[in-house]
Amino acid sequence: MFSQLRLDAWSSGVRSKTTVPLRIELWNGQRLDFSSEPPRVTIRVPEASAVRYLVSPSLYNLGRAYVEGAIEVSGRATDMIAVVNALAAASVRPHGALRRFMRSLPHTRQVDADAIRYHYDVSNEFYRAWLDPAMVYSCAYFENGDEDLATAQQKKIDHILTKLDVRPGQTLLDIGCGWGALAIRAAERFGARCVGITLSENQHRLARAQVARAGLQDKVEIRLQDYRDVEGQFDRITSVGMFEHVGVRHLAEYFGRINALLAPDGLAMNHGITSTDPEGRATPYGGGEFISRYVFPHGELAHLGAVIRAMQQGGLEARDVENLRRHYARTCELWTENYEANAATIRTLTDERHFRIWHVYLAGCTYAFNHDLISLYQVVCGKAGSTPDNHPWSRRHMYP
């Protein structure tokens, strides 16, 4: 039940700790300003029952209230996220009692397939509205920092394939192939014979069409398949933005499966988001809880140390490690700008709830990567104990 005294005490407490360009407009006409500057963000509370979200303003609580329509928020998404983080820091503990509760849940083929389809099968048109033309939905690579999104995504793919020293005639498995951009590039420019796998029916359908449009049906095969069901051996394996869906307790098994599919002198790369908390806790102030519920069900982030450990347990040796956190912050910033610039179109492609989920998610990721709450690492690996004669001795080939 609404308590004016509780609301007054909370707002006074926030003002004593921070200044934010925020205005809160209550259903009764009352306004609360938290800065002498003009507000860049306005939160409208249409009913007294919604005050409970304000007085305990974790990222989960306020994100849930926004997504479910309990409050209205106006302002640029980047400003919204900055304000909400400031409110959370002034009001709640960084880490509550709820840790990574998703770790206790199973990662069966059906559970993983359902989770992937929930996130990726919104619609191809939805993603096309704010991704680059090749529809690459992972961290781009900004060689100079001034590239546009399409250029940076192309450079990311080339950076991966060059790092792996992909050569004509080699076989390449792309686990979690998205809409097919990496497999197509590997075949077109590097001469590889590729298999791409995804659990998303929408991605599978469009990726096959993209392969046909490029005339690469003889070099690229796109499958609707779980990584646990792939057979054979491959000279190169890429996993881009995929292992976050595997589950922390299953990482050694995942890398063991990559090891089994990798040729004796092969190379693999894992490109994925990691936690920066050494204890493996979710991002602070309830951000991880929000993503688990609304964005990536069953998704989990491991610390880089846990990733390297799991690789070794799976029989793989890390050969090269590169941090691209800054690059992912810039990628998410450009995605957010595209999303807001095309908001009218996007609203015709999905319902208001999903529109709001992705709106705050993209801006939230920008903030999280910028502030080192999460990170992104590319780890090149090979079979532990192997010393192939045909591998480069230095990293010079990675930067031609």
Notes on the structure:
Belongs to the CFA/CMAS family. GO terms for molecular function: methyltransferase activity. Pfam families: CMAS (PF02353), DUF7884 (PF25371). This is Class I SAM-dependent methyltransferase. Keywords: Lipid metabolism, Methyltransferase, S-adenosyl-L-methionine, Transferase. This protein is an alpha/beta fold and 400 residues long. The strands form two sheets. The protein has a seven-stranded mixed sheet, with helices on both faces. Residues 97-103 have low confidence and may be disordered. Strand 1 (22-26) and strand 2 (31-33) form a beta hairpin. The protein is elongated, with a radius of gyration of 22 Å. The chain is 42% helix and 18% strand. The chain folds into two domains: 4-91, Nonspecific Lipid-transfer Protein, Chain A (2-Layer Sandwich); 104-398, Vaccinia Virus protein VP39 (Rossmann fold), CATH 3.40.50.150. Helix 4 crosses helix 15 (352-370) and helix 10 (251-261) crosses helix 12 (304-313). It has 15 helices and eleven strands. It has helices at 4-17, 51-55, 59-67, 77-91, 109-120, 124-128, 149-163, 181-188, 201-213, 251-261, 287-294, 304-313, 325-341, 343-347, 352-370; strands spanning 22-26, 31-33, 41-45, 72-74, 171-175, 193-198, 220-224, 234-240, 262-275, 316-323, 374-383.
Q: Could you give the order of strands across the largest sheet?
A: 7-6-5-8-9-11-10
Give the distance, in angstroms, between the N- and C-terminal Cα atoms.
64 Å
Helical content band: 40-55%
CATH superfamily of the largest domain: Vaccinia Virus protein VP39
- From the helix content, strand content and strand pairing, which structural class follows? alpha/beta
> Could you describe the largest sheet, including whether it forms a barrel?
7 strands, mixed
Principal-axes geometry comes out as elongated
DSSP strand count: 11
Order of helices and strands: HEEEHHEHHHHEHEHEEHEHHEHHHE
Task: Tell me which CATH architecture of the largest domain applies here.
Answer: 3-Layer(aba) Sandwich
Helix tally equals 15
CATH top level class name of the largest domain:
Alpha Beta
InterPro entries: CFA/CMAS, CMAS, DUF7884, SAM-dependent_MTases_sf
Pfam families: CMAS, DUF7884
GO biological process, one term: lipid biosynthetic process
Organism: Massilia polaris
